[in-house]
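Weekly structure sync, notes
Attendees: PL (lead), two postdocs, one rotation student
Agenda item 3: pending single-chain targets
PL asked that the sequence for the first pending target be pasted directly into the notes so everyone works from the same version. It is reproduced below exactly as submitted, 229 residues in total.
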Amino acid sequence: MSNYKVLIVDDEMQMRNLIGFYLKQQSFDVVEATDGVEAMKIFPTSNFDLVILDVMMPNMDGWEVCRKIRDISNVPIIMLTARTDLSDKVHGFQQGADDYLTKPFEIEELLVRVNALLRRSKKEDNNEKDKAISVNGMIINPISRKLYINNEDINVTRKEFDLLYLLVSNRNRVYDREFLLQNIWGDEFFGDDRTVDQHVKNIREKFRKNGASFNPIETVWGLGYKFKE
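Predicted structure, written out during the meeting:
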């Protein structure tokens, strides 16, 4: 029996009901959102295994929802749309979608894609212990892009994850802001170099709030930052 939890995001009630009905037939736990705004209120409140996401919605379209989810989670995402342009599909994948299905579609095809993504996700989760770095009650995994503190799954943004993983992977090295900006934010970043400081502050605060026994990032005055066990 399935214990998977799926979030369906679509402004069409008939579509939500149709997908939800067949997922429940396979013992999925289904939660529905009527638009992108509601989806982003619901998503952080639970550990979803998969998101089925319509593209064309009022208030906040599916592309923006996908991008926001990707900032905090690596959950598999299937995007649905009535548009058939290849450029739209490419754009969806660029936002972080894992699969793309054009309406109208056969429900059997959707179910096959759902189960395929969940199998892949489960396989990656099973490999976490072999790939993860574990230090002082913290586990950070580069494949699933998940961070755990005291066995609790912690929501971090992509940049926060990349910054922390770089420092954890190179524990004895000090990195200055310029290097971190270039290697995590990229050459095209034109913002304030204090962006790094804010991300460090956010990471420290998340560790503190979740009962970590240590401050993960040490400030090396005049030089930059390093990982602190």
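Discussion points:
- The chain has two domains: 5-126, 129-227.
- The two ends are 42 Å apart (CA to CA).
Action: rotation student to compare against the earlier draft before next sync.
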